[in-house]
Write a structure and sequence with these properties.
Layout: H1 3-18, E1 77-79, E2 83-86, H2 89-100, H3 105-119, E3 129-136, E4 141-147, H4 187-198, H5 208-216, E5 218-219, H6 222-235, H7 239-245, E6 258-259, H8 262-274, H9 283-292, H10 306-310, E7 315-317, E8 320-324, E9 327-331, H11 338-349, H12 371-391, H13 411-418, E10 450-457, E11 463-471, E12 479-480, E13 483-484, E14 521-525, E15 535-539, H14 547-559, H15 565-570, E16 574-575, E17 581-584, H16 601-608, E18 612-614, E19 623-628, E20 632-637, E21 644-647
Parallel strand pairs: 17-18
Antiparallel strand pairs: 1-20, 2-10, 2-21, 3-4, 3-11, 4-7, 5-6, 8-9, 9-14, 10-11, 12-13, 14-15, 15-19, 16-17, 19-20
Helix pairs in contact: 1-2, 1-5, 2-3, 3-4, 3-5, 5-8, 11-12, 11-13, 11-14, 12-16
């Protein structure tokens, strides 16, 4: 981009990001103008009094993040050449401007991530990690990028369990808020690798939008304000988070408050000028090490070192691609369990006539799932999660059965697993598959929390699906140089041994990457064996361990039931991990959550089949794009968050 073009581009981005509100724009047609906000249904609002639970009372198994309402009757957004969907309007607009200026999906993704780290800091940022699937249209290949955090070299299997072998008390104030939870951040080195492989716009220009917002300020959104309020006691422990997110009297900053972040602006400018390595060596790296090792507020320090940062490498892995009916579905391999668990669930469901069980009363909000279908899908998920919980971990440390993910998604094996499902009765808790003697035991499922997701398709036909996270809301509550550090190591099993005494596959080890549920997904027409067919869908969601269920219900909605992306995203969220509990999203207008769902047909239908049903609001943040004709795209953003889809003029 020539200098004059860069100036015009930066001015355009700043104008768009600072103009207007986050909702209510558009012509009412559901068509997207050139990076101009389009109609998004009823604006998202702060959670109703019955939604957001008080700190410590929310059921993290089905509702890992705060409930922030539901935007009814959202319309799908149609574009002709490029499209982007993220969880925050600022990020969507900035990424869309990169695409309009001729950037690739890789370029737009980098800009979206830098903006999300500023405007949605509770979910992702420079101090976190990510998983990415990238489709290169020129050679028709799919690449999987692993930017997952790693444990420090000094971490032992009891690193999260107790302070030391001589002081067997829990890290203070708790494991998550101590320095022990902080892993080596991976997202920036991963994005640097991505840009080297697929970037077109100059690296430094991709930071302009975030720098402009950090300098000029942005308004705290209702969702961010709600999360600040819930996390205020923990934010008060760290001088940086306290000053940034709380008022001088300790009260949480409210929605509409203007935030600037000069420290992050400085960090972003350094990264823009010096490249991604500036986070891993030099002053920023030194600050990360110091923040991790702090004892301020009585916190137990972590053992992350400068050598841990300097030695971090983003990995390129082989994507996991499996057939589902007439489609090929590609997901992330380990250390994410998302690709394997989604593929296994779909492979089990392929043995049932799910297309014959579409939702009733389909409308803009996706209709109402039938109890028969929800039962089969939840049971398939239980079986898939059972294998995930026992066998899936960092593949560089723990081999999968048969030394390949193909073993867990083998069609014959999944046909046998499908035979364990009783159409009339829930199994409650499934047993993992038997692959002979195993050195590992099945540990308890770790609670996972907040994330964000970005879906992009550029005008060249490239596509990116990236799920990005700092783990819990606001990560470890350690703030450094304007950004938050992750608490990703709490995705490891805190207890390294199973009840039978066998080591848990997902236990802490030096340099290891914790298991994840992030499920960025690309869908293609089934190919001829030489490679994938045409790209048809770009899918992903935040939501902790429930991400897998959100992605499955959306894929089934589109691939089996013919819903458009917005209907599939908006539809009732439902599903199960490997416990007797089945979640049904009570935030959806079609679900009667009063009296614990006692009068709702879907809920009662599941309970009649033996499910223990929770109607707690579900907090997906799906961002979905689907092919519309030869060159067009249609997109959906989750009504449960503040996301938006934008693209070029139809």
């Amino acid at each position: 981009m020539r200098p004059i073009q860069r100036i015009r581009y930066a001015l355009a981005v700043s104008a768009l990001l600072l103009a207007g509100s986050l909702s209510g724009c558009g012509d009412g047609t559901g068509s997207a103008g050139p990076c101009v906000p389009s109609p998004n249904g009823t604006p998202v609002t702060a959670a109703p009094s019955s939604g957001t639970a008080a700190p410590g009372t929310r059921d993290l198994a089905t509702n890992p993040e705060i409930n922030s309402g539901y935007r009814s009757d959202m319309a799908a957004v149609r574009t002709t050449g490029y499209a982007v969907s993220t969880a925050n309007s600022h990020a969507t607009r900035a990424a869309c401007e990169v695409l309009r200026a001729g950037g690739t999906a890789a370029d737009a993704l980098i800009t979206a991530q830098t903006v999300l780290g500023l405007t949605e800091p509770q979910a992702s940022g420079l101090g976190g990690g990510a998983f990415l699937l990238y489709y290169n249209a020129e050679d028709e290949t799919v690449e999987a990028y692993d930017g997952r955090e790693t444990a420090p070299a000094a971490a032992t299997e009891n690193y999260l369990r107790w302070i030391s072998d001589t002081d067997r008390s829990e890290p203070r104030p708790d494991t998550r808020a101590s320095g022990r939870s902080i892993g080596v951040p991976g997202v920036m080195r991963m994005l640097g690798t991505l840009h080297s492989d697929h970037g077109h716009t100059e690296w430094r220009e991709l930071f302009d939008a975030a720098v402009g917002l950090a300098d000029q300020g942005f308004e705290i959104s209702p969702r961010l304000a709600g999360q600040i309020a819930e996390s205020a006691p923990e934010l008060a422990r760290d001088p940086g988070t306290s000053e940034y997110f709380l008022n001088p009297d300790g009260s949480p900053k409210a929605a509409g408050t203007m935030l600037t972040n000069p420290a992050l602006s400085k960090t972003l400018n350094t990264l823009a000028t010096e490249g991604a390595d500036a986070l891993y060596t030099g002053p920023i790296a030194q600050d990360i090490v110091a923040a991790t090792g702090t004892t301020t507020g009585g916190r137990t320090p972590g053992m992350l070192t400068a050598a841990d940062l300097a030695g971090y490498r983003a990995e390129k892995r082989t994507p996991l691609c499996t057939d589902y009916r007439e489609h090929e579905v590609c997901g992330m391999p380990g250390p994410s369990s998302g690709g394997i668990t989604v593929a296994a669930t779909l492979g089990i469901l392929e043995n049932f006539d799910i297309p014959a069980l579409p939702p009733d009363r389909v409308d803009a909000n996706g209709g109402v799932p039938r109890a028969e279908a929800a039962h089969l899908i939840a049971e398939a998920e239980r079986l898939a999660y059972a294998d995930r919980d026992k066998y899936v971990a960092d593949p560089d440390y723990v081999p999968l059965p048969g030394n390949s993910p193909d073993t867990l998604v083998d069609p014959q094996y999944l046909r046998e697993r499908a035979g364990l499902i009783d159409p009339a009765r829930s199994m409650g808790t499934a047993q993992p598959g038997d692959f002979g003697p195993s050195a590992f035991g099945a540990g308890p499922q770790q609670p996972e929390h907040g994330t964000s997701h970005i879906s992009v398709v550029d005008s060249y036909g490239n596509a990116a699906a990236m799920t990005t996270t700092v783990e819990s809301a606001f990560g470890s509550f350690h703030m450094v140089d304007g950004f938050l550090l992750n608490n990703q190591l709490t995705d490891f099993a805190a207890d390294p041994f199973a009840p039978d005494g066998a080591p848990v596959a997902n236990r802490v080890e030096p340099g290891k990457r914790p298991r994840s549920s992030m499920s960025p997904t690309l869908v293609f027409e089934r190919g001829d064996g030489s490679g994938p067919g045409a790209l048809t869908h770009v899918v992903g969601s935040p939501g902790g361990s429930v991400i897998i269920q959100f992605v499955v219900k959306t894929l089934v909605g589109m691939l089996d039931w013919g819903l458009d992306p917005q209907q599939a995203v908006s539809a009732v969220s439902f599903g199960a991990a490997n416990t007797p509990l089945t979640g049904v999203g009570g935030e959806h207008p079609a679900i009667d959550a009063t009296a614990d769902g006692a009068h709702d047909p879907l809920v009662t239908g599941l309970r009649e089949r033996g499910h223990q049903v929770s109607v707690a609001p579900q907090t997906s943040g799906l961002s979905v794009l689907a092919r519309d004709g030869d060159t067009g795209w249609v997109g959906g953003a989750d009504p449960r968050r503040e996301g938006e889809v934008l693209g070029d003029t139809r």
